[in-house]
Amino acid sequence: MLWMLFTEILYRPTFNILVIFLTIFGGNLGIAIVLLTVLVRSLMIKTTLAGNDMQKGMGALQPKLAEIQEKYKDDPKKLSAETMKLFKTDGKWAFKWCLMMIIQIPVFIWLYYVIRHMAAATIPQERLYSFFHSFGAKFIESDALKTGVINTHFLGMNLLATKNIALTIIAAVFTFLQTKLTTLAKPATPDVPGQKTPDMGKMMWFMNIFLVFMIGSFVYTMQTWVGLYITTTTIFSVFQYGRQYRALLRAEWLARTSKGKGVVINPHHK
User: What are the structural domain ranges in the chain?
Assistant: First the structure.
């Protein structure tokens, strides 16, 4: 029952939109993947924007927890009560942010499977809406890839091949930019009196580099269409995040590059 609901509400409409893009652009799978990815990300933009704002709100939770732990370290009962009180107020950010992320996960999974099945020509005829059969049936025939009905070449890339170095580099670069933007937009963690603050900068640097290499390796080893999907998503995220926090990012960037030269930065100035 759940799978049928998933198919009719998410999978089938997405597949038929992909067929429309294929029809408009002469069966070019690369263009269809890029446009479909951008369309789905655009439909999810309100959820993503809200999730980004909530992620920022979570930044103030950790230092407050550390302060409570230091203040009531000798009173376990009071520590427990104050911790629960904090979670009831500020902790709502964590719950809402996790909820926003969970909502987005099935969206990207279904998009991945639609493109995957199209690239492998394994989508059943009944997935196509009846009023699309006149022009879309040819794209789901078993020999659609062999006969060239579906064009798997895009910007000089074979979407069914692997080890595309150019796309790997692009995906890695934009993943790095995304991590840098996220780091710049996060509020600074204040020092807690009487407690040694961990060096979060080094930790985040390591995690960001690891993420860049992980995404790069994934794009390199998988078929190029997967890399195109991931790269398009990452580029979209970079521009979306940069636009959402353009004033804050500009202020943070100027503050870091000024290196204490006495320049006063107004984060609300656009």
Answer: 1-153, 155-270
